[in-house]
Amino acid sequence: QVQLVESGGGSVQAGGSLRLSCAASGRTFSNYRMGWFRQAPGKEREFVAAINLSGGRTDYSDSVKGRFIISRDNAKNTVTLQMNSLKPEDTAVYYCAADRTLSLYTVRSGYDYWGQGTPVTVSS
Asked: Which of 1-5, 82-86, 88-92, 108-112 has the lowest average pLDDT?
């Protein structure tokens, strides 16, 4: 299993940028494909971005494609979400997640481990 801790959340003006990080501990980080999710007040948790074991494949929701970038550093056991051109609708608690399934591809659901979240607020 793996433990996940998010950091980097905060408040930013619309059009600004934030960089979220997820630190993993436990088993070998490279054995997990990773994802980012978010949950806005009064809404269900939704998929944001995913990355495969090696970092060579990524996947993004249509709402963030072209603005957000997911990356990972297996040597440092971290996954990052660079968020650019932020909009007020991006306001949410952002969660890091890990999937133990060995695969060359990404996944949008069925993650096994979750962090506790880091809040992001984007003002207009």
From this structure: 1-5
For 45-86, give the DSSP string.
Answer: -EEEEEE-SSS--EEE-TTTTTTEEEEEETTTTEEEEEE-S-
Spatial contact of 63 and 17, defined as CB atoms under 8 Å apart: no
* pLDDT beyond 90 at 30: no
Q: What is the mean pLDDT of the chain?
A: 94
96 burial type by CB count under 10 A (0-12 exposed, 13-18 middle, 19+ buried): buried
Contact 6, 114 (CB under 8 A): no
The closest alpha carbon to 9, from 98, 123, 117, belongs to 117
Taking CA atoms, 104 is separated from 31, 82, 107, in Å, by 11, 23, 10
Answer whether 14's CB lies under 8 Å from 124's CB.
yes
